[in-house]
Amino acid sequence: MTASVKPRAACLIGWPAAHSRSPLIHHYWLRKLDIEGGYNIEAVPPEGFAGFVQRLAAHGFVGANVTLPHKERALALTLPDERARAVGAANTLWYEAGTLRSTNTDIEGFINNLDASANGWDAVEDALVLGAGGASRAVVFGLIERGIKRVHVANRTAERAHTLAQQFGETVHPIAWAAIGEALPQAGLLVNTTSLGMHGQPALELEIGALPSQAIVADLVYVPLETPLLAAARAQGLRTADGLGMLLHQAVRGFELWFGQRPEVTPELRALVEADLRHP
Ligand code: ATR
Predict the structure, then answer these.
(1) pLDDT digits (tens, 9 = 90+) for 67-81
(2) Minimal-distance CA residue to ligand 1 atom 18
(3) Which of 136, 180, 181, 239 is most buried as measured by Cβ atoms within 10 A of its Cβ?
């Protein structure tokens, strides 16, 4: 009798099961690399999350992505790496020698997208980061790891920017939300990690004419694909890195951990996801 080998499968655990681009991305790579595998969406309510994660392998999965509202809980239920601990949230789970591990791939998603979109960006000395939530922690971790000298963080709620500075040390300089305009002329890199500018959210009211002529502007928001911030940056000839690029790059490591091959972020994949964003 021949033993039947079940194809490897990963899943996205969220609640409610919102429309996600992750299946599109991972199915594209599975097809491209000719790997027999799967990627499902699993709607798991908060009260069922611990049980589901503890029995992830029994459910037939080699790993998972975790999204709202479970990202923080995932830390306590797994063995997190340094990145997940620094961000305070895990978005990718996998088994390592039988232990369920977790990491946060937003850090490399942000940095690798910058490398792909604005080669040489890390020559900047001063970065200005808007926001001080989980996404900001991922960005700040990546910037410090890459050796950026000063990371200025502006947040509407000042206290959160100070907490972030305490966590990450002297590279981080909290500034008042009202002082963003004064910080622009020194900012070689401007990053929006807030939800401002996202479809359905308030606009990011910011005049960026004072940025240096070689500045790079990154926005984590990807709906709309071109935020008013990115449009303004491009209109003044600045290089940009968009939220969709980060989304694609953050998916690479999960796929590699689950299926054993490192996939590429290609223009074809980008076009596929762009089309889905336009006509969901
Ligand atoms: P995430 O994990 O995506 O970073 P979060 O932790 O909820 O989500 O953080 C959202 C960020 O967007 C915060 O920096 C938040 O500012 P506050 O800490 O003051 O809440 C910012 N943000 C959301 N709405 C905002 C608004 N209307 N004006 C300014 N900042 C806003």
Answers:
(1) 999 999 999 999 999
(2) 157
(3) 136
